[in-house]
Write a sequence for this structure.
């Protein structure tokens, strides 16, 4: 086959002087100066940039034409593993059971409820499928019924830009009470008395900046809280016992909470403990006391404290569940008679139940690698909690668990309509030795009869940022590679919290290079153990995991047969130097501030994928993005691909695909999203089979 010629991006040098250092960015022109307006209306994108992106999309489509049949088959397989007319396990609240369900062929769900007494007589609350009709993008970010069950509020994004519009419906009459808020963050809560709706406003730079309160049935907005530090995010919540409304403020390393008594929702919020850099805390009210989840006083892997003070300032905290290094307390859920805490030890989850009398017991499973998570419920005065168990070989199982009797009731097992036989597969937990001696977990999924002689193609997935752990969960998508003889491996690298919060701290700021060397160590271990061969590994990561992809491409290009970088954060130095971008100030604690700190500038420069592209032979690269993405802007992958294409000494293709109608998460429909994954996977197969011609 003939290889189409790649687009050639013009170079327009832009000289940037910063902290006495000078860099030249040849592709800075790809950033539309009017990017804020583009987020709200993509049609305003500058014509030359649109033309360049459309040319990139056309090139990628042409180059991947031989994979179209494979893409279609993979999409069909993934779709065939989804129960199309599926529904969630109903969540009880008062006289009602609340749930979501899908109809056959629907891309979006229906939100509904039915009487708890007999389970008959469904009432539709929100029909996402109908609302999404004729819209290229539609996504509901939050939806909630009022505590008195009379109203339903929901926030929708119709652009992918994460600017939401909030609407409220009267459930007795079905009447739409109008637009409650625009330019909103995807978060909302009703006050426990159902009289007020609290919501968060996003500013012109797409940052959550203010909390407003308005009458739930409509009325003027009242400013409740305004955050002066543009490096902080905002969140809303209500305590489990409905005693308080909470406003959360924080970034990756520092948090602060404000409370409003539910008995007086119009009261001014009161700070609990003023923010202190490096100290994180969240809290909930457990009938007669506060329970605080915190890393204060050197509790790296967190502890639980309690307080009986009306406003539980830190001076009133007393340790309850003491800190234990290596046992990461990830969170907790409070019920009237019990508290359930979630813990992670060596990349495995468990639940610990504590009764009010202090008795404890543990909920755990025996598989070598699995994921176990609590699910949120509405009711406080109950002995039932709900958790979901899954593993790479075991579909999601939803259990109701009686906290008093310890009885497990299986409520639902994820149905795979096309069939799934767990006995065909094997999941393993391996450990790679990092250059500094740390043991990095790897979760592997493969067919039982896959040979371990290096002949099988392997996909190595990684993330490693913000303390986000990679779950050893079940995926209907990954099986489309595994069933073709591929090995799927997750690298639980530093920067995530897979082995505790210290695992995260060891992969951020000046220790960020550990994330990259951990990933490379995982690849080398898999090669040494017969799971892979050098040059026959497809590396895959998205967002901050896309930054990982760019870094390991620069560091060890010969290890990889293909690199898939989804919405990749690759222009790190320029992005962290641009204070107008939504995530820049909030993410300085993660990466450092190159505007004020010369050491941070030099460190970021040393690994920023875009800045470190050099004259060497790179493997085939597929970068994807979304035009309306406020998190990783479209120009990051666009600039990166242009520079890779300019510098690569080899003849492997550098491809870019920008979804012109979506944001950070890609397509919003459950099936359209799978088409994007199928493209990624087909590219990996094609690249490793050398389906492209050399120049």
């Amino acid at each position: 086959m003939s290889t189409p010629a790649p687009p050639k991006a013009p170079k327009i040098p832009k000289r940037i002087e910063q902290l006495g250092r000078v860099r030249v960015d040849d592709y800075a022109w790809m950033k539309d100066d009017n990017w804020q307006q583009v987020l709200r209306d993509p049609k305003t994108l500058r014509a030359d940039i649109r033309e360049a992106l459309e040319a990139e999309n056309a090139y990628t489509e042409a180059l991947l034409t031989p994979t179209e049949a494979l893409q279609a088959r993979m999409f069909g397989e993934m779709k065939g593993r989804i129960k199309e007319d599926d529904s969630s396990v109903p969540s009880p609240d008062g006289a009602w059971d609340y749930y979501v369900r899908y109809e056959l062929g629907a891309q979006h769900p229906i939100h509904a409820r039915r009487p708890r007494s007999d389970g008959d007589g469904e009432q539709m609350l929100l029909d996402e499928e109908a609302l999404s009709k004729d819209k290229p993008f539609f996504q509901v970010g939050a939806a909630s019924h009022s505590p008195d069950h009379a109203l339903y509020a929901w926030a929708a994004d119709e652009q992918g830009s994460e600017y939401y519009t909030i609407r409220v419906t009267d459930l007795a009459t079905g009447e739409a009470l109008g637009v409650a808020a625009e330019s909103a963050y995807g978060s909302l809560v009703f006050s426990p008395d159902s009289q007020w709706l609290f919501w968060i406003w996003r500013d012109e730079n797409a940052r959550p900046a203010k909390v407003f309160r308005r009458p739930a049935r409509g009325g003027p907005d009242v400013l409740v809280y305004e955050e002066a530090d543009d490096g902080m995010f905002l969140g809303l919540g209500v305590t489990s016992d409905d005693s308080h409304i909470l406003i959360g403020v924080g970034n990756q390393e520092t948090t602060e909470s404000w409370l409003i008594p539910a008995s007086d929702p119009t009261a001014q919020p009161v700070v609990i403990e003023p923010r202190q850099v490096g100290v994180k805390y969240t809290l909930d009210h457990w009938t007669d006391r506060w329970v605080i989840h915190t890393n204060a006083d050197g509790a790296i892997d967190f502890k639980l404290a309690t307080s009986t003070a009306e406003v539980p300032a830190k001076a009133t905290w007393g340790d309850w569940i003491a800190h234990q290094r290596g046992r990461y307390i990830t969170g907790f859920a409070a019920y009237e008679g019990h508290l359930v805490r979630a813990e992670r030890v060596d990349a495995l989850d468990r639940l610990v139940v504590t009764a009010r009398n202090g008795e404890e017991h543990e909920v755990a499973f025996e598989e070598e690698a699995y994921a176990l998570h609590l699910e949120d419920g509405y009711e406080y005065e109950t002995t039932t909690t709900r958790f979901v168990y899954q593993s790479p070989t075991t579909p999601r199982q939803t259990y109701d668990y009686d906290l008093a009797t310890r009885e497990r009731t299986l409520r639902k097992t994820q149905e795979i309509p096309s069939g799934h036989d767990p006995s065909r597969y094997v999941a393993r937990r391996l450990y790679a030795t990092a250059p500094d001696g740390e043991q990095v977990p790897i979760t592997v999924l493969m067919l039982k009869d896959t040979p371990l002689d290096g002949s099988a193609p392997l996909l190595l997935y990684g993330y490693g940022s913000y303390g986000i752990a990679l779950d050893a969960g079940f995926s209907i998508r990954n099986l489309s590679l595994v069933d073709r003889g591929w090995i799927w491996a997750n690298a639980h690298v530093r920067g995530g919290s897979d082995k505790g919060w210290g695992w995260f701290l060891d992969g951020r700021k000046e220790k960020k290079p550990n994330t990259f060397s951990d990933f490379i160590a995982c690849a080398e271990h898999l090669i040494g153990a017969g799971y892979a061969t050098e040059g026959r590994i497809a590396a895959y990561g998205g967002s901050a995991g896309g930054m990982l992809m760019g870094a390991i491409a620069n560091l060890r290009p010969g290890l990889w047969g293909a690199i898939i970088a989804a919405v990749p954060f690759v222009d790190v130095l320029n992005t962290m130097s641009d204070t107008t971008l939504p995530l820049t100030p909030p993410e300085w604690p993660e990466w450092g501030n190159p505007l004020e700190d010369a050491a941070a500038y030099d460190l970021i420069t040393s690994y920023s994928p875009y800045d470190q592209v050099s004259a060497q032979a790179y493997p085939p690269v597929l970068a994807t993005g979304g035009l309306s993405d406020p998190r990783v802007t479209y120009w990051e992958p666009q600039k990166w691909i242009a520079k890779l294409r300019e510098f690569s000494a080899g003849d492997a293709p550098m491809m870019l695909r920008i979804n012109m109608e979506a944001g950070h998460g890609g397509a919003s429909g459950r099936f359209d999203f799978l088409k994007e994954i199928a493209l990624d996977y087909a590219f990996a197969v094609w690249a490793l089979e050398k389906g492209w011609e050399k120049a």
Q: What stands out?
A: The radius of gyration is 25 Å.
